[in-house]
């Protein structure tokens, strides 16, 4: 292995697996009670994951779609709400890749208050790798599979979404 490959290998070994970022809840995204609109939780968490991928891995899905004609399409979303996020509140969103296959990803995003003491919501999004030109699912490259293996954080005991939400709720009550 040459030095360049060794450097890349060392970099891959040190990739963060759980990504985190903060954002402020905006007025236009809230309902009349100043709570974040239910549908907007998904927008905030997807936006957080997109920025985190750029900031932590320089992984730009827009460039991949433009240059290679491939991307990921959300095929399933599961969400549980625990406590409302409110207008101008700063929230912390933590994301991770919890499962992957040759043609799909399962990403978990958890929204907390700024200091991660109050759980707001948890979401699981299943994405299918997709060829934009053929309009069909598409297998991940070996390079992507290696990348996913480096950032994968499996859920203990292969818990279902409902079990995971229950565990998070119980954990939140002890914080």
TrEMBL record:
Instruction: Kindly give the Gene3D superfamilies that the UniProt entry links to this protein.
Output: Hotdog Thioesterase
Q: Which UniProt keywords apply?
A: Hydrolase
Entry's Gene Ontology molecular function annotations: fatty acyl-CoA hydrolase activity
Which Pfam families does the protein's record reference? 4HBT_2 (PF13279)
Name the CDD domains on file: 4HBT
Q: InterPro entries recorded for this chain? A: 4-hydroxybenzoyl-CoA_TE, HotDog_dom_sf
Family according to the record: Belongs to the 4-hydroxybenzoyl-CoA thioesterase family.
Protein name as annotated: Acyl-CoA thioester hydrolase
The record lists the lineage as: Bacteria, Pseudomonadati, Bacteroidota, Chitinophagia, Chitinophagales
């Amino acid at each position: 292995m040459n030095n360049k490959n060794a450097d890349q290998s060392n970099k891959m070994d040190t990739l963060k697996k759980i990504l985190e970022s903060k954002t402020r809840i905006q007025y236009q995204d809230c309902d009349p009670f100043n709570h974040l609109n239910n549908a907007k939780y998904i927008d905030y968490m997807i936006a957080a994951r997109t920025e985190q991928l750029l900031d932590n891995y320089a992984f730009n899905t827009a460039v991949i779609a433009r240059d290679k004609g491939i991307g990921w399409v959300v095929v399933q979303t599961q969400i549980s709400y625990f406590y409302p996020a409110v207008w101008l509140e700063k929230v912390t969103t933590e994301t991770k890749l919890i499962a992957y296959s040759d043609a799909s990803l399962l990403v978990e995003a958890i929204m907390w208050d700024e200091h991660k003491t109050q759980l707001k919501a948890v979401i699981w999004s299943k994405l299918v790798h997709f060829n934009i030109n053929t309009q069909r699912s598409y297998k991940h490259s070996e390079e992507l599979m290696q990348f996913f293996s480096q950032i994968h954080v499996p859920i203990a005991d292969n818990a279902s979404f409902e079990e995971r939400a229950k565990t998070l709720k119980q954990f939140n009550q002890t914080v």
